[in-house]
Design goal:
single chain, alpha/beta, Rossmann fold, five-stranded parallel sheet, two-stranded antiparallel ribbon, globular, binds zinc ion, transferase activity, nucleotide-binding, TilS/TtcA_N
Length: about 325
């Protein structure tokens, strides 16, 4: 039996970068401490905050919801869970009950927004249209639509923050992807501090220093109900970047942390000034836009799809 380096109980995890073993209790305690440290260091949560957590049902977002609910109870805040049902056959339909179960367990209100109801079409249908019209690939398309729905819903719910379950792996992949694509403004917006522009609900990523594997172990050790599955549309450059970074991490431990740390150091010096362009309200959905329409409504127009609902949350 391998013993926990801290208490001598049976170890369940080896942290290669620090050379320490942890038992189930010490693992959970350490992860919760790191979660709180990320939140405190970047000032992600304030007392009495109302936070909307985007929860897909995967290990990251479910762990994030539990950690946030725990944290907000002590900060006297409130958390709500929000799931986007994109309409991905055989994938999302299985994860919706999982989010419902976790929300009920925590006594958290759960809202679902469906592409079908809002746009009149599922992602599966939109992806076909986009392919016919040489539009963006399904992953990009989904990302744009989901992002704006999350922001709009959080705004309509009067949330102080929108919490996303992105872990260390996701954040590091996105940093490298934006380098490869040369997208400076996207790169800048990945930072830990909050995007406080009018119309945007600040997005927080409390798991940005916790790896995908650690979030999965946390869910497992806490016996959380999660949906294990891979989105059928995953692919493209992100998969290549993911493989590359995982290989580097294997051969050179702490690569992921070092990419994140380096990014956090250079980010304040990036020559990006958002005050330069003024934001208006999108004519169709009210989201922040640089022109008459926001990116999401522009995309729908290109695909010839008419949006059915202007407001998302009926009060
Ligand atoms: Zn221990
Ligand atoms: Zn719009």
């Amino acid at each position: 039996m391998v013993e926990c380096s801290f208490c001598g109980r049976r170890a369940v995890h080896y942290q290669r970068t620090a050379g320490v073993y942890r038992c189930d209790r010490c693992f959970v305690e350490n992860l919760e401490k790191r979660f709180r440290r990320t939140v405190a260091k970047n000032n992600l949560v304030e007392p009495r905050d109302k936070i909307v957590a985007a929860v897909s049902g995967g290990t990251d977002s479910v762990s994030n919801l539990h950690l946030l609910a725990q944290h907000l109870e002590y900060r006297k805040g409130e958390v709500l869970s929000l799931t986007i049902d994109e309409g991905i056959g055989g994938y999302r339909d299985e994860s919706l009950p999982v989010v419902k179960e976790n929300s009920q367990m925590l006594g958290v209100e759960h809202k679902i927004l469906s592409f079908e109801k809002i746009f009149g079409k599922s992602l599966d249908e939109l992806a076909k249209l986009s392919e016919e019209k040489n539009g963006p690939d399904p992953c990009t398309l989904c990302g744009i639509l989901r992002r704006s729905l999350l922001n709009q819903a959080a705004r309509e719910l009067h949330a102080d923050k929108l919490a996303i379950g992105h872990n260390l792996d996701d954040v590091v992949q996105t940093i490298v992807l934006n380098y490869l694509k040369g997208d400076l403004s996207r790169l800048y917006r990945l930072g830990p501090d909050l995007e406080g522009r009018e119309g945007f609900v600040p997005r927080i990523k409390p798991l940005r220093e916790i790896s995908e594997k650690e979030a999965a172990i946390y869910a497992l050790l806490n016996d959380l109900s999660v949906h294990i599955g891979t989105c059928p549309y995953i692919g493209g450059m992100r998969s290549e970047v993911r493989e590359f970074i995982n290989r580097m991490e294997k051969n050179h431990p702490t690569t992921k942390y070092r990419i994140l740390r380096m990014f956090d150091k250079i980010r304040p010096h990036l020559p990006v000034n958002f005050e330069d362009f003024e934001l208006k309200e999108c004519e169709r959905c009210g989201e922040p836009a640089t022109g008459q329409l926001c990116r999401s409504c522009e995309l729908l127009e290109e695909l010839g799809v008419e949006r059915r609902k202007k407001r998302l949350i009926s009060d």
